[in-house]
């Protein structure tokens, strides 16, 4: 290793250091030695980069960084993202299609760099992984926001708004606008979103204004989703228990409203939080009305944030993920 890249400063990533390879990449203080032909076959950007004649030794005197007699190619990307991106290329088992378990940060890192370096199959795969977190279909959103929803295969700290912040920033960067409505929703529904995001997730004044304005709309929409409570009990109800259950449901809703913390029109069913149960007639009436009101809200969700409607966003997603497949 040359004096310009001393061993104390730089770290070789062992699993991505192939002794017979000739391309050495550096990201921050991490070094990767990989096969240029494989990388060029996957990435049109690297293909073009490698096509340019490389300096030949002794090149260090020309100001080039050298390692083991090879010129180092400097990448201005985060080392962690370069590592997962290269692993996805050189290890076919590392980044499998959905629903294989994968860490959220891996998905974001692969998505960003696959977009930047034009590795389309990895870009599409990363976006497909995010579908389960940021759905575009109303029925999928019910599973996502249900208290009984299955654990997601994309692993992250549940309830951590940092996930949504990172996702919407990355979505804006790569043009995946269909991710934005649910990412924005997850942030805006939290009354103290600025506190929960913390200092490491800086929102612009325009974004803060956008989320605060959405909260008022969420509160109104939440009230709309429970207007059916006025219809209960159903005309066919013959259960004495329903009156007590409905009364308890009203108490729960009042506590939610008094706390002013619930701005979650797509959130769970209020009767999941009471001890009693409704008769079939009351249950059917309530669920049909509640779901219909939630669907109305879902249909308007993108426009609440000044985004195109779902039809346009779904078409964009289809073009990116399906047409280029």
From TrEMBL:
A Pfam family the protein falls into: BTB
Highest taxon listed in the record's lineage: Eukaryota
Domain BTB residue range list: 19-98
Protein name per the record: BTB domain-containing protein
Organism: Favolaschia claudopus
């Amino acid at each position: 290793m040359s004096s310009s890249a001393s061993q104390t400063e730089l770290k070789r990533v062992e699993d991505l250091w192939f002794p017979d390879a000739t391309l050495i990449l550096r990201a921050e203080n991490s070094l990767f030695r990989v096969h240029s032909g494989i990388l060029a076959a996957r990435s049109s950007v690297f293909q073009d980069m490698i096509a340019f004649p490389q300096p030949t030794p002794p090149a260090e005197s020309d100001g080039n960084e050298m390692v083991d007699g090879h010129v180092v190619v400097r990448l201005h990307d985060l080392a962690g993202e370069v590592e997962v991106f290269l692993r996805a290329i050189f290890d076919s088992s590392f980044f499998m299609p959905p629903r294989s378990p994968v860490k959220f940060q891996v998905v974001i890192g692969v998505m960003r760099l696959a977009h930047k370096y034009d590795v389309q199959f990895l870009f599409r795969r990363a976006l497909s992984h995010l579908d389960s977190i940021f759905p575009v279909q109303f029925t999928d959103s019910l599973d996502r926001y249900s208290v009984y929803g299955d654990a997601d295969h994309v692993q992250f700290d549940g309830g951590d708004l940092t996930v949504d912040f990172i996702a919407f920033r990355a979505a804006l960067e790569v043009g995946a606008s269909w991710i934005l409505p649910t990412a924005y929703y997850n942030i805006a529904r939290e009354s103290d979103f600025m506190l929960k995001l913390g200092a490491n997730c800086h929102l612009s004044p325009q974004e803060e204004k956008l989320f605060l304005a959405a909260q008022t709309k969420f509160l109104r929409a939440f009230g709309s989703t429970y207007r059916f409570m006025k219809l209960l009990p159903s005309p066919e109800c013959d259960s004495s228990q329903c009156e007590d259950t409905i009364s308890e449901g009203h108490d729960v809703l009042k506590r939610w409203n008094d706390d002013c913390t619930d701005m979650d029109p797509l959130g769970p069913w209020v009767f999941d939080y009471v001890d009693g149960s409704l008769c079939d007639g009351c249950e059917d009436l309530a669920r049909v009305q509640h779901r219909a009101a939630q669907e109305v809200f879902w249909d308007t969700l993108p426009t609440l944030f000044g985004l195109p409607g779902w039809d346009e966003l779904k078409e964009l997603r289809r073009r990116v993920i399906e047409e280029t497949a």
